[in-house]
Amino acid sequence: MNYRKIALLLATLFIGSSCLAQTSKIYKKDWIDLNKNGKKDIYEDASRPTKERVADLISQMNLNEKTAQMATLYGWKRILKDSLPTSSWKNEIWKDGIANIDEHLNGFINWNVVETKLDLVTDIKRHVWAMNETQRFFIEQTRLGIPVDFSNEGIRGIEAYQATGFPTQLNMGMTWNRSLVRAMGQITGKEARALGYTNVYAPILDVARDQRWGRLEEVYGEDPYLTARLGVEMAKGIQEMGAASTPKHFAVYSANKGAREGLARTDPQVSPREVEDVLLYPFKKVIKEANIMGIMSSYNDYNGIPVTGSSYWLTDRLRTEMGFTGYVVSDSDALEYLYNKHHVAANLKEAVYQAFTAGLNVRTTFRRPDSIIIFLRELVNEKRIPIETINSRVADVLNVKFRLGLFDSPYVKDAEASKKLVNSAANQQVALQASLESIVLLKNTKNALPLAKTGLKVAVIGPNATDADYAHSHYGPLMSPSVNVLEGIKQKIGAQNVSYAKGSELIDKNWPNSEILPEEPNAEELALINEAVETAKKSDVVILAIGGNTKTAGENKSRTSLDLPGHQLALVKAIHQTGKPYVVVLIGSQPMSVNYVDLHAPAIIYAGYPGVKGGLAVADVLFGDYNPGGKLTLTFPKSVGQLPLNFPTKPNAQTDEGETARIKGLLYPFGHGLSYTTFSYENLSVNNKLSQNGEVEVTLDLKNTGTKDGDEVVQLYIRDVLSSVTTYEKLLKGFERVKLKAGETKKVSFTLVPDDLMLWNREMKQVVEPGDFKVMVGSSSEDIRQTAIFTVQ
Predict the structure, then answer these.
(1) Model-level pTM greater than 0.85?
(2) Are β-strands 113-114 and 108-110 bridged in parallel, bridged antiparallel, or unpaired?
(3) Which of 249, 271, 389, 675 has CA atoms 20 to 30 A from the CA of 77?
(4) In which element (H, E) is residue 200 found?
(5) What's the DSSP call for residue 387?
(6) Contact, 534 vs 579, CB < 8 A?
């Protein structure tokens, strides 16, 4: 009996099998014979410069192989019907290779549809094996063995069945913590590579401009400087772990008219200076400082020209000016929109011509890659697209694959190590810290918070008490175990001390029509409110968990109102009328006009979308085991009728002075956030009268003047006092999250560089103009504690 054959057979039955014959002959001691010719070619030699390897490979590629590197293949159950390579792949267009495979075996099938049964998705070791087998097809079964780049989403952890689940990017913004965002990027990149993904679509560098926008959860906030600084950290963290960072959406994406989503996303109403100062600023910084390997082009136009068909955007600005050296993928249908929405191309073939001549490298959308690739071949044969253009686009893609090491080490080597790493206890602890640091204390009258952990009967009421859908939505881990608010509170003070009532659904039965035609609660809805009232009456204190969730916000879910959805306001009023003490936990990605809550509730915390550990973090804050230090990165208006309203703003553009018929003021300004302790700002010092090429050093003493240890986010704003064009009232140009023990003092330092002082003058040239600059340092954009003036000669 041949025991070796039996062992091999059993191993095959255990780990699965591919119907394609495998070969070990091409795998040499320190190289792979990718083109199977028996010799080490330049592109197979890891000791040669990348530029030489790319040139050698392109010289060996035919037109079919080149154009195959210019399209995305979506993964299993998106486009791919097979979870593993089959012999039929030899008859598919990707027999010549493919640029990247997106979202392969990550578990996401469609909105609210997650694969839970296939072990190649749910079991990490099996998943790693399947990803390797998919890569093996391209290494072993294609002529030149060009590896595929496995791309995937990752703005709150890598999108997989299970992985480390972080709070949303908006919550990460509210931590104002560079090192924490860097750690998140490192974990995301490391877990991506461990699962076989080599390219992460993160961070999102869009800057919020409208509080109604459904995708606010995906951005860091309203401020370009904050977005840039955190974006650099996230991108660096991902790429330090050997994965590519592909930010999105370039460019002018987040200023969609009226915050419209779905198929709108066109005609952004933004001035040229706002484009430069706000919307492009983060991309410039991240490209320059993080050397990112990817960019996703957006599907909007600007000033009448679609970005994905614009050489101005994809070549002149992105590559020539900003120095981008990676490859550009199109956002979903961005190429197709050139002809079927923007109507600047007669048909799909003409859209292909416009996009790829403009500078696109890879078309990415939820359709088969065939038509795009075939049209590219036709356009070359018709001599409309020069082969030199094709070579240039392909070289960008190959350059990234070489930078990722895919030609030399294309497989995940240790599935057992991957299993130990992904969603490990250590990584989960970092995610919990992110959840804690992102929570913002909006209001705390007479020290209503923190609550006592003993001696209280607590009623937890509201639709967000048990709803943790925000922790399982698209663009991050799908099924990582989560803790909701009710569970977190029970773990904190004991289930025997906690009662629960839903009080209301998140939305009413007529939502969203009820946003403009509100109705009184029906009998069923009143019964929920009455049940909550009775539960509240039997308690010592009520915790109201209200706000928004995945039903009211997210991609394609912009709102027309910022009021509490459904009958939640009626619930709040009913609880208030019981006379029982209560505090509010506000969950949701969009700022909400909670005017009644702000007026009456003694304490409010804004948890945003706090991640899979959100319930634990909320409980820690409520009961004083963590002193909140998060700060808002969005402006909270009192009414949707005040919009547009955002930070930064031009002089007097948002003033209420002289108004007599409008609601005045904000609920909460940009940068707002309280603490269970207090801080003093003293001894501000600013070097002044520096040359235009000099740096400005700003220092101050920060003291914890309260009785509890805590964090303060020190914010530095500047104002160009007299300028040739109008400039913003306050520009954030520095921030630092500082941990202080009770009574402790620390010196906080900032360095302003000439770039921080620049404006676009009347000739649209970026310059530093001589004159005075005002420095404002404080606890929020409106809570300025110290000011000074310095002069640029």
Answers:
(1) yes
(2) antiparallel
(3) 249
(4) strand 199-201
(5) H
(6) no
Give one DSSP letter per residue of 216-267, joined into a string: GGGS--S-HHHHHHHHHHHHHHHHHTT-EE--B-BTT-S--GGG--TT----
pLDDT of residue 267: 85
Distance CA 703, CA 748 (A): 10
C-alpha to C-alpha distances, 772 to 451, 709, 756, 761, nearest whole angstrom: 48, 38, 14, 16
Question: What are the CA-CA distances from residue 663 to residues 318, 468, 604 (Å)?
Answer: 42, 34, 22
- Annotate 394-448 with three-state secondary structure: HHHHHHHHHHCCCCCCCCCCCHHHHHHHCCCHHHHHHHHHHHHHHCEEEEEHHHC
711 included as an active-site residue: no
Distance CA 741, CA 2 (A): 70
* Contact by Cβ (8 Å): 132, 15: no
Strand segments (E) across 449-581: 458-461, 498-501, 541-547
* Predicted local distance difference test score (pLDDT) of residue 15: 41
The helix/strand/coil state of 722 is coil
Q: What is the DSSP letter of 642?
A: G
Nearest to 449 by CA among 588, 502, 592, 458: 458
681 phi, psi to nearest 5 deg: -115, 125
Q: Which of 96, 93, 120, 94 is nearest to 106 (CA)?
A: 120
Distance, CA of 675 to CA of 442 (rounded, Å):
9
Q: Give the pLDDT of residue 690.
A: 61
Set 331, 508, 620, 720: catalytic member? 331
In the numeric block, which tokens belong to residue 360? 């696109």
Bridge partner residues of 666 (DSSP)? 637
Rounded average pLDDT per 10-residue block, the chain, 793 residues: 39 48 86 97 98 98 98 95 96 98 94 90 98 98 98 97 97 98 98 98 97 95 98 98 98 91 84 96 98 97 96 98 98 96 97 98 95 97 98 98 98 98 98 98 97 96 96 92 98 98 96 93 96 98 97 92 96 98 97 97 98 98 98 96 92 86 91 98 86 84 98 98 96 98 98 95 95 97 97 89
| Positions of E strands within 640-708 | 666-668, 679-686, 696-704
Those residues with Cβ within 8 angstroms of residue 509's Cβ, 6 or more apart along the chain or in another chain: 522
- The DSSP element (H or E) to which 715 belongs, if any, is strand 710-720
Q: Please tell me the predicted confidence (pLDDT) of residue 7.
A: 36
**pLDDT for res 21:** 73
Residue type, 31: W
On the CB side of 697, how many CA atoms lie within 13 Å of its CA? 6
Could you give the dihedral angle defined by the CA atoms of residues 570, 571, 577 and 579, in that order, rounded to the nearest 10 degrees?
-160
3-state SS, 468-499, equals CHHHCCCCCCCCCCCCCHHHHHHHHHCHHHEE
Please count the other Cβ atoms lying within 10 Å of the Cβ belonging to residue 415. 21
* Amino acid (one-letter) located at 68: A
What DSSP character marks residue 300? Answer: -
With beta carbons less than 8 A apart as the criterion, state whether 693 and 728 touch: no
